[in-house]
Design brief:
With about 550 residues, this protein is of the alpha/beta class. It is built from 22 helices and 14 strands. The radius of gyration is 27 Å and the shape is globular.
Amino acid sequence: MQHAVRGAQFNAGSSEGKTPGNQQAALEDHIVATWKSVREKLRGEFGATAYRYWLEPVALITVEAGVARLGTPTRAMRDWVSQHYLDRIQSFWHAEDPNVHFVEVVVAMPEGPVETGNGRKDTRNDGGSAKPSSAPGRDDHRANQASQAGQSRYEAGHYDSAGSRKSSGQSAGTSSISSTGHSQGHPSFPAPAGGRGAIGSMADDGISAALDPRYTFDNFVIGKPNEFAYAAARRLAEAESVPFNPLFLYGGVGLGKTHLMHAIAWHIRRTQPHRTVIYLSAEKFMYRFIRALRDKNTVDFKDQFRSVDVLMVDDVQFISGKDSTQEEFFHTFNALVDQGRQIIVSADKSPSDLEDIEERLRSRLGSGLVADIHATTYELRLGILESKAERQRVELPQRVMEFLAHKITANVRELEGALNRVIAHSQLVGREIGLEMVQDVLHDVLRASERRVTIEEIQKRVAEHFNIKVSDMHSARRARAVARPRQVAMYLSKQLTTHSLPEIGRKFGGRDHTTVMHAVRKVEELHTTDPSLSEDIDLLRRMLES
């Protein structure tokens, strides 16, 4: 393991009686033991098969400045490990060694004998420094640069009396990372090369959620349904002042809201490291507020959230009906706006359509720029598949991509999951990717997507057809021009979804299940006596089912 700890230095006062050679050996043993322990935990959690195919080939390159850098022989393996195992690797490693806060995966393997965690020495390369795999490409070049920047060493440092690791030249009274993820005395950890390979928290104290390294602007596929939201997010991320406040992103599940929010955070973190950023879900905001109330520590809570430069809150609809949390969020919102700080919010509906949200908060949320992300089109889904396949260096037949883009229409997340299953099956079983293979592997997904229609989609289609607002579906208005389309939407929700009557009622402004039952019976009756309405219903059904 000399490649991983070369050049380590120690504080003379904390290592009295030990020779540099003994210190070096002790440090090597500690790193090797930590890595082996992490590997064993991964084997136990994910099983022998997954471990053998994906985790056993991963080798430790370097541990330095709180960052553990791992190497994989190929880009496909790096992406797979980053997507499916990196969060657990980071969690296990931090549990073993609290001084390691960040784990990075690059396409590079160290030269010479390497400890891979399975008790064997792996000899992959010859030479004097960490080298990238032979697969060509720009990402490999970036990974090589990231690997060589560490030059396979454990960075010079020492341990204070409490066992906390300090980099050389850093005074004992200086924290290496501030509460917002920015360094005091040296640069903060950069985003991973190419935007992938590591998941790092923006706040050491657990306020900010981890950022997904895959979610960068470079990896976002732009199409007509999301081009406005992308342009707004990019403009905000690149601006040094506040262009619009707040930025409110909304759209259905898996359409890219979280991707854009992570991309904004990565970009600001890389280009404006002096700005403090907090990204978290509305649910976590509520949890921290409740804990502050319980601990009678609301002053610190307010200081934490009202002193940042950029506050990003995902899925704000989860504070619906939580009056105390809404009030605190409202005051936090006002305090940040008054200071000229940036706020970014996402939800599954527009501000005007959010249910059980105070009117004053709803008004504030809609006072900035509201950008919606529409359901994906066939062309956008095809572009996403082509982009994903290219990044993973996988050859996908055009017919297969067209088939997937046509069949899996629910959201991008499901489309990516289907593609990952196909690629994994091909690599693990050795079966060539073809149309028959895809239909076999994804039979359950394809069957489920055959007739998957959401209540939100039904409401939107019916509102467009009858020329009313989607918000009228949830309102208390009883005018016939509104009530009849609402009844039609309830009827179609009962016919085309698996939701129960109470669930449907809740989606229509919290109505009772008996109201839904009455609507279904009324529309069934009109279906046979009103030819015009019957034609409308049949047309809507065909549109939704197609």
